[in-house]
Predict the 3D structure of the following.
Amino acid sequence: MPTIQKVGVLGCGLMGSGIAQIAAQAGFQTVVLEVEQKYLDKGFAGIDKSLGKFVEKGKMTAEQKAEVMGRLKPTTSNQDLADCDIVIEAIIENKELKKSTYAALDKIVKPDAIFSSNTSSLTITELSMATSRAKQFVGLHFFNPVPMMKLVEVVRTIVTSNEAFNDTFEFAKKLGKEPIACRDNSGFVVNRLLVPYLLDAIRALEEGAGSIEDIDKGMVLGCGHPMGPFTLLDFVGLDTTYFITEVMFEEYREKRFASPPLLKKMVMAGRYGRKSGAGFYDYSGEKPVAMDSKR
Ligand code: CAA
């Protein structure tokens, strides 16, 4: 397996742009693939903004920021990924699209390169089977916001080779992250614990245990969480959370992973959270206002 020097990132959305950013920050030449230039423009604007915050705070100089940006190569051509040593996929959570993307790249990217996926709930084993390199296929699950969150879950399937797993684990450290080793069980470690907790917060709300703000305040002040469950749900995206619950419930058939009716209705109503302007809170004003607020 080659030493990882060049990184390919598929997708320049919230997660893909964050992954590309930290790879370039860590000194890797990084190619970022999108289907259309407009998605690259949007993602690169986000990277510019995030790096700008580090410059503002004196954590990085303007020259260093320019160097990081210089290591990032945006592209809409699969061919530009041919000589990457690792390809990290962070496109939308659509299993068939992911599989066809890997299958196409399998023929283009050099045969000893590692393929990895940032999926949060889909089965790495199934995705790996779309390629001829299942032994070199490793899950690499980052957390939002990628430049700030220290953790990466490194996921091995029953066919992943020790060498590919160890190389990917070491690569995650070079990205400045703290990796943990996970098996390919739906939701890995973090979402297996986080998702039932978030769903339980919605059930507590449905049952009238407390208001949105009070439940959030309870977990922030009572347990030291950086965000309460409803703020976090809005941050992750209710559509994303709903999708994850569907996959996890399908896998485990356990009530703790089943979506509460309110979550489904929020998604039906287009209240996806921060990204759509409203979720459990409304973000149109100066301060977020909880949807059950009487004030
Ligand atoms: N780039 C650069 N800097 C950033 C940034 C970014 N993308 N996002 C936040 N920051 C910086 C801010 O500028 C700020 O810097 P200073 O402290 O130096 O001023 C710092 O981070 C803190 O930000 P804020 O003051 O805005 O707010 P905060 O203190 O609440 O921190 C947070 C923000 C880091 C997001 C924090 O609230 C947090 O850790 N929240 C929990 C996030 C979480 O749980 N993420 C996991 C979600 S689950 C997931 O991703 C997996 C899945 O599969 C669903």
Observations:
- Residues 6-183 form a domain with the Rossmann fold fold (CATH 3.40.50.720).
- The pocket of acetoacetyl-coenzyme A is lined by residues 50, 53, 57, 120, 143-145, 147-149, 191, 226-227, 232, 236 (CB under 6 Å).
- The chain has two domains: 6-183, 191-280.
- The chain has eleven helices and ten strands.
